[in-house]
Specification:
Layout lengths: L11 E3 L5 E3 L3 H34 L2 E11 L18 E8 L2 E5 L9 E4 L3 E11 L5 E9 L3 E7 L2 H15 L2
Length: 175
C-alpha cells in the first residue's frame, strides 16, 4: 500500500483549477478500502490483546519470564532417566501466579496460556544447584513437583526473581 503512495507511482493530473490531483481506478480505491479495513481490524485485535495482558498482569500476584523445562518422575520399575545435562531444552516462558493457579504463556503477549497447574496439585517446591550454561552468567534454579509426577524446572539469572517465586509458591501452596 505504501508503495502506491510514492510520488513516482501515482498518476498525477492537473485539474482545471490549477491543483494537481491523483486519479485512481475504482479497483485501486476498493483495494485501498479493504487494506484500511484490514489494518483497522488488526489494530482492534492488538488493542484487545493489550487490554487482556494488562488485566492478567494487574490480577497476578507474581509474573515474569523464566526459562523452563518439564520432566516426568520415574515410575516404579522404570529405568533411571538418561543423563540429559548436556541437552539444552530450556524454553523462555512467561509465568503468572494468579489465584489458585500457575499459568505459563509462550510470550507475554499471548491471549491464552500454553498450560497451567493448580496450586493444590503442587506437592513440592525447592531449589536446584546453580549452574553456568554455555558460557552464560550464573543461573539460579528451582523446581515445582506435582502429584501427577510432573516436575517443572525453572531458572533465571536473577537470584531475587527465583527467591520471590520460591517464597510465593511455598506460601500459596502451604508447603
Amino acid at each position: 500500500m505504501l508503495n502506491l503512495f510514492s510520488p513516482s507511482k501515482l498518476p498525477w493530473m492537473s485539474g482545471t483549477d490549477g491543483q494537481e490531483k491523483v486519479v485512481l481506478t475504482a479497483a485501486e480505491v476498493e483495494s485501498l478500502r479493504s487494506e484500511i479495513a484490514a489494518l483497522e481490524e488488526r489494530e482492534a485485535h492488538f488493542k484487545a490483546q493489550l487490554e487482556h495482558i494488562d488485566e492478567v498482569v494487574r490480577a497476578a500476584r507474581l509474573s515474569g519470564y523464566l526459562d523452563m523445562r518439564m520432566r516426568w518422575a520415574t515410575l516404579p520399575g522404570e529405568p533411571l532417566p538418561v543423563d540429559d545435562t548436556d541437552v539444552d531444552d530450556w524454553l523462555p516462558r512467561y509465568f503468572v501466579l494468579q489465584g489458585s493457579c500457575i499459568f505459563w504463556y509462550s510470550s507475554c503477549t499471548d491471549l491464552s496460556p500454553q498450560d497451567s497447574t493448580l496450586l493444590s496439585d503442587v506437592v513440592e517446591v525447592g531449589t536446584l544447584p546453580c549452574l553456568r550454561r554455555d558460557n552464560e552468567d550464573k543461573r539460579y534454579y528451582f523446581y515445582i513437583s506435582t502429584r501427577y509426577g510432573l516436575k517443572y524446572e525453572c531458572s533465571s539469572i536473577s537470584k531475587v526473581k527465583v527467591d520471590s517465586w520460591l517464597e510465593a509458591l511455598r506460601s500459596d501452596c502451604k508447603l
